[in-house]
Specification:
Length: about 425
Amino acid sequence: MERGGLIQLSHLKERLHRYLIDQLGDETTNLIEGSRPELKRFVASHIQTFTRQQQLAISGYEIDRLTEEMLDELTGFGPLEVLLNDPSVTEILVNGSDHIFIERRGVLSVSDLHFVNDQHLQRVIQRIIAPLGRRLDESSPMVDARLPDGSRVNAVIPPIALDGACLSVRKFRKDMLQSHDLVASGALSEAMLAFLEYAVKHRCNIVISGGTGTGKTTMLNLLSSMIDHRERLVTIEDTAELQLKHGHVVRLETRPPNADGHGEVTARSLVRNALRMRPDRIILGETRGVEVLDVLSAMNTGHEGSMTSIHANSAADSLLRMETLVGLSGVPVPEKTMRQSISSALEVIVQLVRLPSGLRCISEILEIGEMRQGEYLTNVLFRHDRLRNTFIQQNHQVFNEKLAGVFEASQEGLG
């Protein structure tokens, strides 16, 4: 359809929306809170009345389509409704009212759906966050929240967003990916899986590293599913996304400050509180701030088998990222002491990457050993060869004593 046709359709839908809202205001009963079939009959009837009054040449098919779109607008999330209900869509990115992008199988593409205007988009955003008790206005133009189904929502409005309101929705998978699904998709090899199972079983402290959208939460879910169900887990997240199929889990979530700037609950305070809850393992959804000090302390003081994720471009960079976070904490820690604490706490780093094809996979698994002359002693156990699209085992020397036994056990398990 030509751009002029889209503008005319948008104008028609805007007028139609206002007309329906006026008609609903005349009703003695609240149709929007009633049954969908009843509201659909009301909308269809008034759309036909509207088109006759305006003398619009419109087909029965177009009336049916407008009825469904107006129904979604009145009761749901407008053009997002169909995307939220599509299981193949994993992420929705809205850049202003005219541009909606969707992710399927790790690849972004533009959708032909759009909002009537920016006001329409902002109404839908407000409708999304209203039940969540979050605030979004000029004085607080950013919001990060979680939908009841677990989907993660981030919204930014003007004046911060210069080209109109922006919305990001990372959908929550109702069916958690299993290990065989990831092996079949090429995300990791059987040897990698066997090694990770034994690393979890032998209570190795593991860091999942990667960029945005590389599958860190999925990997944390996978590794957590390997934990003995007799153990007590405490999870800490900014936005609860983990799906732990475990019998004994305590889930904690941070809280942003309220409109007055009070009531914030930080990840660091939750990590400290978790230590008083008799956890066998602590799982921190993401290390991004001063809580790194408490996580390292927990890993070094008896809470073996704990896990976290971190944003970094490589496994080696994740160590530098942790050093940076410690430095930003404001706590004066000598470099040698800091590095010794990190190397003592961590044993395995699993690096994830998203390939141009959209595939998310493990790019390398790194072991951490003792410090040597002030430097980290590391060794790549597995890596992904992009040219041949294969996983290569590189255990030239497994020097971490615990991991040496784990690696040997995993190889016997494969045999």
